[in-house]
Amino acid sequence: MMDALSQSWLLLSAQLNWRSPAWLALIPVAVVVALLWQYRVKPTRNVLARVRCYADVDVWPLVVRGRADEDEKQSRIVRILKDLAGWLGLILLLLALAGPRWQHEDETVFRQGADIAVVMDMSRSMRVGDGQPGSSGRGGGWMHEGRLAQKDRLTREKNELHDFLLRLQGDRVALVAFAGRAFLLSPLTPDYGVVMHLARQLRPDMITDQGSDLAAALRRAMQALKPARGHGRAVVLLTDGENVNQGELKHVAASLVKANIPVFVLGIGTSEGGLVPAGDGRFVHDAAGRVAQSHLHEQRLMALAKATGGVYAHMQPDDSDWDALYDSGIAQMVKRTRVASRQRLRWREAFAWALLPAMLLFGLWWKSRMRAWQT
Fold first, then answer.
1. Same domain (yes/no): 355, 337
2. Which has the closest alpha carbon to 174: 287, 261, 271, 251?
3. Domain count across the chain
4. Per residue of the chain (375 residues), what is the pLDDT tens digit?
5. What beta strand segments (E) does the chain contain?
6. 8 A C-beta contact, residue 289 and residue 224
7. Tell me, what CATH number does 251's domain have?
C-alpha cells in the first residue's frame, strides 16, 4: 500500500509544474512569521483580564453580562486553531498565486499556409544607392523621400523582407542568398524571427564568388521546397535582375513551371540606376575600363514572373508592393495546406484547489476576529 502511494506521489510530482514559482519563496517567510506570532501573542484576550483594569470584582457580572464565563471556556488550543486557519489560508493563497498545474497531454498544433522560399540578391550591385532620380521614369517615383534615398539596395531589400514576414500567418519560409553562387541559409521554418535575423547579417562581401547566378539560386530554392511536395509552394525573389544568364534562367523557369512553383518577384532599385561601389572609396569598372552602372531590369524580371505563373511588383515606399505580391498573389494563387507544425503541452490548471480552501479558511479566521473585536 505504501509503495503504491509513494509511486503515485513521485509520478504526480514529476508532472507538477508552477506557472509563477517565485511566489513559493514567500511560504517559508509566512511560516516563520506565524510561529513568531504564536509565541508573541499571549492568551490575554479574555474579558475578565480586560475588565480588571476598570471594574471591581463585585460588579464584574454586571459589566460583562455573562460573557466572562463563555470566554473562560474558550481554550488556548481553540484560539491557536483560529489563528492557524488564517495563516494556512495565506499559505494556500501563495500556492494558488504560484499557479500549480499538471501535464495533461501533448497537443498537436496545426497550421494552414504555404511553403515559401525567399531568394535574396547579395551581389555587388546591391550596394548601389540609385542616387536621386528625376521626375521621369517608373522606377524613380518612390525615391523622392529623403530617408529612403540615403539607403542602398541591400538595406531596402532587408526592410522589404521584414515587411513581407509581418504579413505571414501559418506559412513556412526558407531563405536563400546568392551572388556568383547560391547558399541555403535556412530550411523551411515557421520561425520568422530566425529568418529575419539571418537576413540582417548578410553583406555582399560575405560571398567571395561575385556575380549574379540567379539560375543557381532558383534551383537551390526548388531544393529547399522539395520536402514540401504536395503542399502549396512559391518562390519570392528580391533582386535587381542584373547580370543574369538568360539561357539558364529560361531553363530553370521551365523546371519551376513543371514543379508548379510560381515566382513572385520584387524589383529592387530604379531604372535610372547608379554607380557600383568597389568598397575602397572607388567604383567598379567594366571590361572596357568605364565606370559600371547598375540598373533595375524590370522587363527581364516581369518575363520570369509571367513565365512561372507568378507576379512582378516594383518596390514602393508604402505596402502596395506586398499587397500585389502577397495579398493578391501568394494568398490567392498558392494552395494553402493544413498540416501539423509542432507539438505543445496542454496543462491542467490546479490553482483552484488551493484558492477555494484559502478563501474558506480566511472566512473562518475573519469571523473569529470580528467576534474578538466585538467583545
1. no
2. 261
3. 2
4. 556 555 555 545 556 777 788 888 888 887 887 777 766 555 444 555 555 565 565 665 555 554 544 454 555 666 667 777 777 888 888 888 888 877 666 666 666 788 999 999 988 888 888 754 433 333 333 333 333 444 788 899 999 999 999 998 888 999 999 988 899 999 998 889 999 999 999 887 777 777 788 999 999 999 999 876 667 899 999 998 888 888 899 999 999 999 999 999 999 988 887 777 776 667 776 666 677 777 888 999 999 999 999 999 999 888 899 999 998 889 888 877 766 555 556 677 877 788 888 888 877 777 776 766 665
5. 16-18, 100-113, 115-121, 172-178, 182-189, 233-239, 263-267, 274-275, 293-294, 312-314, 337-349
6. no
7. 3.40.50.410
Do 236 and 320 share a domain, yes or no?
yes
Residue 105 in domain? no
Whole-angstrom distance, CA of residue 122 vs CA of residue 206: 9
